[in-house]
Amino acid sequence: MSTIPDQHYIDKILQGETSSFAVLVDRYKDMIFTLALKMVKNREEAEEVAQDTFIKILLV
To answer: Which band of pLDDT confidence, cut at 50, 70 and 90, is reported for residue 3?
Structure first.
């Protein structure tokens, strides 16, 4: 994991560099998926929930 803090990438995204969002997705995708899987108890649904989560975050 990179030592560059999340806030650096958040600032870049807010400045219009949306490609920086990929770094945050990579950092948190496993954690988000694991949490979603614990909640919905179905792998396919958890994948969809995780994807929807990142889409909603990006569009906020």
So the answer is: confident
